[in-house]
Amino acid sequence: MTHHYTLTISCPDRTGIIAAVTGFIAQHGGFIVEANYYTEQEQQHFFMRQEIRANSLPFTTEEFASRFAPLADEFSMRWQLADSAIKKRLVVLVSRQDHCLDDLLHRWRNDELRVDIPCVISNHEDLRSFVEWHGIPFIYVEMRQDKAAAFAQIAALFESYRGDTLVLARFMQILPPALCQRYSGRIINIHHSFLPAFVGAKPYHQAYQRGVKLIGATCHYVTIDLDAGPIIEQDTVRIDHGDTVDDLVRYGRDIEKTVLARGLRYHVEDRVLLCGNKTIVFK
Amino acid sequence: MTHHYTLTISCPDRTGIIAAVTGFIAQHGGFIVEANYYTEQEQQHFFMRQEIRANSLPFTTEEFASRFAPLADEFSMRWQLADSAIKKRLVVLVSRQDHCLDDLLHRWRNDELRVDIPCVISNHEDLRSFVEWHGIPFIYVEMRQDKAAAFAQIAALFESYRGDTLVLARFMQILPPALCQRYSGRIINIHHSFLPAFVGAKPYHQAYQRGVKLIGATCHYVTIDLDAGPIIEQDTVRIDHGDTVDDLVRYGRDIEKTVLARGLRYHVEDRVLLCGNKTIVFK
Amino acid sequence: MTHHYTLTISCPDRTGIIAAVTGFIAQHGGFIVEANYYTEQEQQHFFMRQEIRANSLPFTTEEFASRFAPLADEFSMRWQLADSAIKKRLVVLVSRQDHCLDDLLHRWRNDELRVDIPCVISNHEDLRSFVEWHGIPFIYVEMRQDKAAAFAQIAALFESYRGDTLVLARFMQILPPALCQRYSGRIINIHHSFLPAFVGAKPYHQAYQRGVKLIGATCHYVTIDLDAGPIIEQDTVRIDHGDTVDDLVRYGRDIEKTVLARGLRYHVEDRVLLCGNKTIVFK
Amino acid sequence: MTHHYTLTISCPDRTGIIAAVTGFIAQHGGFIVEANYYTEQEQQHFFMRQEIRANSLPFTTEEFASRFAPLADEFSMRWQLADSAIKKRLVVLVSRQDHCLDDLLHRWRNDELRVDIPCVISNHEDLRSFVEWHGIPFIYVEMRQDKAAAFAQIAALFESYRGDTLVLARFMQILPPALCQRYSGRIINIHHSFLPAFVGAKPYHQAYQRGVKLIGATCHYVTIDLDAGPIIEQDTVRIDHGDTVDDLVRYGRDIEKTVLARGLRYHVEDRVLLCGNKTIVFK
After folding, report:
1. What part of B 31-70 touches C (C-beta under 8 Å)?
2. For position D41, what pLDDT does the model report?
3. A111-120, B104-113, C40-49, D91-100 — which is least confidently predicted?
4. Whole-model pTM?
């Protein structure tokens, strides 16, 4: 993995945006490793992502930013520059089920998912030992009494651990609206159905009752509307009449893990741009 | 393809059903080619399907039936015996889009789908020439004026052509409840979404608006509840942010075709048994 | 479908290529609809594809070419400019099996695959009526006697019908090396296995013997090495122990059709660039 | 999970086998939970698997065996009766890569995979701490000096830990032929390619060089022929030209894990029957 900067931009579409941006990069000797573009047709809004080799540029991200600002203004850009040397910090929320957590921590300890995990927070004690074996602080938050206080504590922990992203890795509690709004675009959930089918509780039971022939999982940003936020990634797996709800839960775990892992990867590599309630994912 | 009889049975579960049925078959020298069993746990209801080589039995289906009846009564069976030499008769309803029809007729003329297609009925003239090239009668039914009369005509055609199954191969009209009830379990539709997501009109537009990352198709029996009948088969295909509604429609056509073809195959081979609003599919 | 030009380029990688090309386009008011880039790391070779709205440019493809030439020379580019208004001409070779042909002609007559099909050539008469129903000339070429003469005739037909691409849609004859070389990068085959497994004849029988749990199909450019040319597209489908060779053939037809259709689509939209014996496919 | 017995049988095909076996079961009040049958056509060999509720039978597995023996002899059956209360014992061999091991141990500690893992053996020390956190003995075997001695030690450990199955969970050493033969049908490997493509070392590099558009993984029984044993389960995942060998390795890990997990599950639930160099898998 080389050291690179990732420049993500969105702005109203017009002629010459790519030329202007790549001209700016080329003018400073910047070597583009990966480039992606997309124009949303309904709003005529343009999105781009450039990965630039860090050592091909003669300046730091700060200087890049100050030099790039006039160009960005000219095109009314919303933009962001990420440095691959600065790892994103994921604060993970779990309840009792550990399959997504196990998968995340495995990818983390093998450096497949290049992030820091400053802490894991849970409303149950069950997973303490496993998390602590990894050398990661495990923080228990009591949720049965005062939920508002519990969520205030979670927000405080997220801040004090300087989290970038809050990951709900099968966290079986609904976040309060204020939290969803405060960290808009920074909270990622894995829902155990193929959304928009089977919103809410017990989606595998719903799927079993409906008699579907495939079940799915969805990784999405959390908004104040339950299970209705922008979708980052989804997948399905085939089932048949012989499968019980327990079988669905078991098959489902495997897709939940991989769908969350892929969605998180896109997110931490700055491959996901928001476009209304939809996502642009530059793979 | 050898000549065989297919015996399908459903009854309350208890000990000894398989033994009794296979004992009966063995006693007459019947050679079982394929056998499937399933017990639905909630209702404790048992389902089975046996394919028996026709020439291994010393009698006709009629005699089989009369000899088998006492056993069937003993176990309170609902049962059916199909003869592979007697092809099912599919009456196909289409509108303007021909991808499912083209696929069906191709499978039919190559004898992959072993059925008779006595006629194709449409509320548009567009596909007449293609259908007639196959030597199949094409019947136009005017639907813009009097829908009730049109559906009465369709029912009459279905009867006069001695149809077993009515296939809605992208027929863009909603069937009246009386028709759905009259031919319960005999009308098969292909819906262009992954049900229960995106019921009703323009599911690809709905999918586009929601920003899903996969789209799907569903083959199901038609009931009086729109797009809510027992599901026979489903599949999904991956899309991304760059795909327009037209792209979704294009990708969708490919899964609609294969999902309908698989669902129909299961149906005409008597592999589908109804269990409430769900299907048992013995593949 | 809007009218657009597609510019495809490959050249040694260095700083500033994207900036130079998009600068050139922007300078003439060119509106980029879709853009893709890729750098092959081993050879440090750069590939790009730009789709430009035709009416945003003030000149014809000829003038574009003459103005672009100096820039292309500076970067040692191999490049090509295609006009979406000029349809590619596919000459299709078939034998007796018609599933790929049926699929292609369906996509053609619905304008999903935007090509001209000036003729279909076959070493059997079986499919004449179906092809001619489409208004497409069907030409029978006798292959049992003198294969060299037959292939000379095929090449002559390809020339006289001004074919751009020769499509082997389950053509069960091996092309002579001279033909493969003469039309390098312009002959597309569908092979009925997941290459490199099961090269050559009867791949479904080979798959059955080996006891694999998935079978596949591969769309590739034809080279002088049998089934070893650059792969454009592949897919697999799950089978199980109960499936006979006939079942494999049946399942296989469905993936052959879709894999060939996808591969052809990429090819005719100039999305496939050759990189040694591999392909870059800008989807 | 209810307590059940699993009866697996293979014998020459003839009329009346199912009737005889299910008659025997019914006669003793046995309640069949799941039943599967298959006749291999080339050899006319019959295979069956019955799951019987343990408490529906009035006797132990020993008595079942002694009463069933005469029937088994009559039909020249090879047969086996497994008790779900007696967990299979998996001895796991690993090297340095831990993704399959992590996945296995997660499924084991959540009781998804109902087995005992008496020990994990490795030719590297890397994974000791992780294994021991689970309370499972980790045994290091030195392999750089004397391979024969090392494999003798592995065999001795397998015996002393009373292993039923030896699982090569990305164990990067080739087993000696004698070991393969001694534990025929009891050694399971995960190979990181879609066999028979890319046998042997570095399959992801081979796949990258060939330019395939999908990569795969294969779970199979180990025989003396390298990567050529009976295949239990396979799967593939889509890649594209932009993926490096490292990306292939990363994608591959996810399918290796799930393919091994599924294959092992089938094996420990006695769903896999050998038929020459192929497997019958009763899912």
Report:
1. 34
2. 86
3. C40-49
4. 0.96
Are A96 and A124 contacting, i.e. CB atoms less than 8 angstroms apart?
yes
For A146-150, A223-227, A274-278, D41-45, which range has the lowest pLDDT when averaged over its residues?
A: D41-45
* pLDDT confidence bin for C1, thresholds 50/70/90: low
Chain-wide mean pLDDT for chain A? Answer: 96
pLDDT in tens, C188-237: 999 999 999 999 999 999 999 999 999 999 999 999 999 999 999 999 99
CB under 8 Å to A124, separation ≥6 — which residues?
A94, A95, A96, A140
Give the one of A106, A112, A242 whose C-beta lies nearest to D250's C-beta: A112
How far does the CA of residue A127 sit from the closest CA of chain B (Å)?
32
Q: Is D246 a catalytic residue?
A: no
Long-range contacts of B199-204 (CB under 8 A, 24+ apart): B199/B226, B199/B227, B199/B228, B200/B226, B200/B227, B204/B245, B204/B248, B204/B249, B204/B252
Q: ipTM score here?
A: 0.95
Q: Within chain A, what is the greatest distance between any pair of CA atoms? A: 63
Partner residue opposite C242 with nearest CB, options D38, D197, D233:
D38
Nearest CB among B38, B197, B233 relative to A194 is that of B197
Query: To 5 degrees, how large is the angle CA A134–CA A139–CA A140?
Result: 130
Asked if C214 reaches chain A (Cβ–Cβ under 8 Å), the answer is no
CATH 3.30.70.260 residue ranges in chain D?
A: 4-83
User: pLDDT per residue over B3-19, tens digit each?
Assistant: 999 999 999 999 999 99
Flag if D23 and B25 touch (Cβ within 8 Å): no
What average pLDDT does the segment A43-64 reach? Answer: 93
CA distance A189 to chain B (A): 15
Please write the tens of the pLDDT for every residue from B61-77: 899 999 999 999 999 99
Decide if B26 and D34 are in contact by the 8 Å CB cutoff.
no
The catalytically annotated residue of A103, A164, A227, A270 is A227
CA atoms of A172 and A193, how far apart (whole Å): 14
Residue D232: count of CB within 10 angstroms of its CB: 26
Asked if C119 contacts C138 with a C-beta cutoff of 8 angstroms, the reply is: yes
Check whether D196 has a pLDDT greater than 70: yes
The secondary structure element, H or E, covering residue D232 is: strand D231-238
Q: Which one is catalytic: D227, D235, D243, D254?
A: D227
The segment(s) of chain D belonging to CATH 3.40.50.170 are: 88-281
What is the pLDDT at residue B208? Answer: 97
Two tokens, residue C224: 């002088």
Contact check, Cβ <8 Å, D18/B16 = no
Provide the b/e sequence for C193-211 (b: ≥16 CB within 10 Å): bbbbbbeeeebbebbbebb
Nearest CA-CA partner of A228 in A280, A193, A253, A265: A193
- A131: Cβ–Cβ under 8 A, 6 or more apart, which residues? A101, A105, A120, A137, A138
Instruction: Provide the pLDDT confidence category of residue D1 given band limits of 50, 70 and 90.
Output: low
Report the alpha-carbon distance of residue B36 to residue B50 in Å, rounded.
Answer: 7
Q: What is the pLDDT of residue B1?
A: 65
Return the pLDDT at B59.
87
**CATH fold of A4-83, please?**
Alpha-Beta Plaits (3.30.70)
What SS3 string covers D14-40?
CCCHHHHHHHHHHHCCCCEEEEEEEEE
Contact between B280 and B273 (Cβ < 8 Å): yes
CATH entry 3.40.50.450 includes domain A88-281: no
Report the distance separating Cα B122 and Cα B104, nearest Å.
15
- Alpha-carbon distance A228 to nearest alpha carbon in chain C (angstroms): 29
